[in-house]
Amino acid sequence: MGVRLAGLLPGELDEPQAEVYRAITGGPRAAGPQAFPLTDEEGRLRGPFNAMLLSPPVGQALQAVGSAVRYASVLTDRARELAILAVAAHWGSAFEREAHEAVGRACGLTETEMAALRSGTEPDLPDPAEAATLRTARTLTAAGRLTDEEYAEAVRVLGERALFELTTLVGYYGLLALQLRVFAGEEPPAPATETNEERQGT
């Protein structure tokens, strides 16, 4: 992955950019043990956070949405990370996957569960809320909507607030994945190739 947007050192930031920087590095993301570093060795923001400095008003609002869906949601930590990793797999975002697999391990996701998330297969999730969260997140990324039946089931298991927060989360991490493609040069996953048997209809 070739980085297109050069990172800014903390000393190069103007005051509006510095406010965004402080909100990211000094807010809830920085509290307690960090599963992945927010900055490089010289203090430049990593991943999608770097591009947020281009427009401090938009960047400040965007990082606040991200902070809310991660730290002020009724979704459990495991359910949240299941959903984020489903979005990362859909978009083929290496940064999101690596960062949130690290967070997922800290939240108790197993390597088997994360392997299933990477491959798009079904992990064994005995918790109904976790299973509904993952199912709904995958439906939203694939179809961009819920049928009436899917909506009713998600509300029955999760509740309306959690479903609202989940749809916001799916949109937020999809947006970050898009920005990583544009500003960090992340490549989308290669399309699956047909086997000889599939091409021959066997």
Automatic annotation (TrEMBL):
It holds the Pfam family CMD. Residues 56-137 form the Carboxymuconolactone decarboxylase-like domain. It comes from the Bacteria. PANTHER family: 4-CARBOXYMUCONOLACTONE DECARBOXYLASE FAMILY PROTEIN (AFU_ORTHOLOGUE AFUA_6G11590). This is Carboxymuconolactone decarboxylase family protein.
